[in-house]
Amino acid sequence: MTVTTSYQNTPTRTVDIDGLTFSYRRLGPDSGTPVIFLNHLGAVLDNWDPRVVDGIATTHRVITFDNRGVGASQGTAPRSVAAMARDAIAFIHALGHDQVDLLGFSLGGFVAQVIAEEQPRLVRKMILAGTGPAGGEGIDKVTRITLLDSLTATLTFKDPKEHLFFTRTANGKAAGRQFVNRLKERTGNRDKPISVKAFRNQLKAIHTWGLQRPSDLTAIHHPVLVANGTHDRMVPSSNSTDLARRLPNAQLTLYPDAGHGGIFQYHEEFVAEALTFLES
User: Fold this and answer.
1) Where is the AB hydrolase-1 domain positioned along the sequence (predicted)?
2) Strand boundaries in the chain, DSSP class E
3) Disulfide-capable partner of 39 in 43, 49, 69, 87 (CB 3.0 to 4.6 Å)?
4) 10-32: average pLDDT
5) What is the DSSP string of 134-195?
6) Residue 3 above 50 pLDDT?
7) Contacts of 44 (CB under 8 A, 6+ apart)
8) pLDDT band for position 117 (50/70/90)?
9) What are residue 67's phi and psi, to 5 degrees?
10) Rounded CA separation 68/218 (Å)
């Protein structure tokens, strides 16, 4: 079975978890291990690059969702990565899945690591993009970088992600503009933007993660694809190298002249590599 729709027009669904409604979208084949996408700081359903979602969904069921208190999902967004992971696990179980692949980007990559540690049998494979381990270099500075770049973007009438996710070279600037335009392709049934409270709670969780003692990642034996740009300012690229070195069964890809959003700048290459990894 092939994809019958694109992320641009995939309907938004809901599932009830302990009396709270969680919003999600799904597309791709009905068979096989689903790929759960775990989102970044401040992101809702509409912040996933449709080229990445559609690319993975050509041969895999893709499920994107708003975790507790984010976007249209009800409740209060947690202030810790561990609590976000517990909510993600509850969401996966609520959909009836007993094993999934995880694609965690940035904050979502922190969450993915905790899920793999807490529920190893729930996870088959992981893709960790633009992310790093607990206590990783520079992660505790995400708040300062985010606020400064957001101010710069506002003053120059740009989307903050153009500064936060992409390099300021000619290639990086062009890729940033193209990415932001792709995020606008969906014109109907768009998600609610993240609330100020949820955004602050996520910043608190990231800051705490950056100050934590590093986890013993040798306990994570799942196959892992680690990906990033070579010039990530938000979660410095050295964290990706560190992850790949410390995870027993990991492979690393670093995209040249790319930042935090390397997988979006190089979406064609990333999708091809991700599909090979998931199917190997």
Assistant:
1) 34-264
2) 13-17, 20-27, 35-38, 62-65, 100-105, 123-129, 224-229, 250-255
3) 43
4) 97
5) TT-TTGGGHHHHHHHHHHHHHHTT--HHHHHSS-SSHHHHHHHHHHHHHTT---SSPPPPPP
6) no
7) 66, 70, 71, 72, 191, 192, 193, 194
8) very high
9) -70, 175
10) 29
Percent of residues, the chain, with pLDDT higher than 70: 99
The two structure tokens encoding residue 3? 């994809």
Domains of the chain: 7-279 (3.40.50.1820)
Q: Residue holding tokens 């992320």?
A: 7
- Dig out the tokens for 254 from the structure: 């670093």
The residue type at 236: P
Q: What pLDDT score does 149 carry?
A: 87
pLDDT attached to residue 4: 53
DSSP string, 107-127: HHHHHHHHHHHH-GGGEEEEE
Task: Please give the helix or strand (H or E) that residue 88 lies within, else none.
Answer: helix 81-94
Q: Which residue has the tokens 């096989």?
A: 32
Using CA atoms, how far apart are residues 224 and 249, in angstroms rounded to an integer? 6
pTM beyond cutoff 0.85: yes
Over the Cα atoms of the chain, what is R_g? 17
Q: Tell me if 23 sits within 8 A of 14, measured CB to CB.
A: yes
